[in-house]
Design goal:
This protein has 202 residues and is of the alpha/beta class. Helix content is 47%, strand content 19%. The protein is built from 8 helices and 7 strands.
């Protein structure tokens, strides 16, 4: 079965970051079901592995539960990553996890980025901090990023719409592209120019 791992980097408990992660997990499941697919979705709270992350930074080796989480992330077909915004960027805990993750782990992996903060003025951190980070890691980031400020929880409709759109984009990346005779390149077949023009007008 297709596997999706949701990583949340909230520090408090309960955490709005975990709440957004749970909402995204549910939306990804719903998007998959609406497309006739099944997903195994797992939510991981990085705060539970903070000490092991520090130890890996010092020793260079992942141990125990952290090593298992890293393996599940590497084996996952897609990721959802959610961080609180501190000082206009992702949290140190969030960055630490990806700093010690084995290289090449995210290459080509569909990834949905999301963040929480107290004010909407921090929403651009998704574009100037998170998206460049995952571009550097060579993940395939979905077009819609999800940001939830404190006021967004009261206006659930707008947040739910962004969550559903981003979840749909992630699931669509997991579905194999439909191939038709017209989309399969055949060097021996020449498509008349008039037909190509007609297709473009349609």
């Amino acid at each position: 079965m297709t596997r999706v791992v949701v990583l949340t980097a909230g520090l408090s408990q309960p955490s709005s970051t975990r709440l957004l992660g749970d909402r995204l997990a549910a939306a990804v499941r719903a998007a998959a079901e609406s497309r006739g697919a099944g997903l195994d979705v797992e939510v991981v709270e990085l705060r539970e592995h903070a000490r092991d992350l520090t130890n890996q930074l010092l020793t260079g080796f992942a141990t125990g539960a952290l090593a298992q989480v890293q393996e599940r992330v590497q084996r996952a077909d897609a990721l959802v990553v959610v961080t609180p915004i501190f000082s206009a960027s992702y949290s140190g805990l969030f960055k630490m996890f990806f700093d010690v993750l084995p290289r090449e782990s995210l290459v080509g992996k569909p990834t949905l980025i999301a963040a929480t903060a107290g004010s909407a003025r921090h929403s651009l951190a998704l574009e100037h901090a998170l998206r460049p980070l995952f571009a550097h890691l060579r993940a395939v980031v979905v077009p819609t990023a999800v940001f939830a400020a404190t006021e967004d929880w009261a206006d659930g409709g707008a947040l739910d719409e962004r969550v559903a759109r981003a979840a749909g984009e992630l699931v669509d990346l997991l579905r194999p592209a439909r191939r038709t005779p017209e989309t399969v390149a055949d060097p021996d077949v020449v498509v008349p120019f008039a037909r190509l023009l007609a297709r473009g007008r349609g």
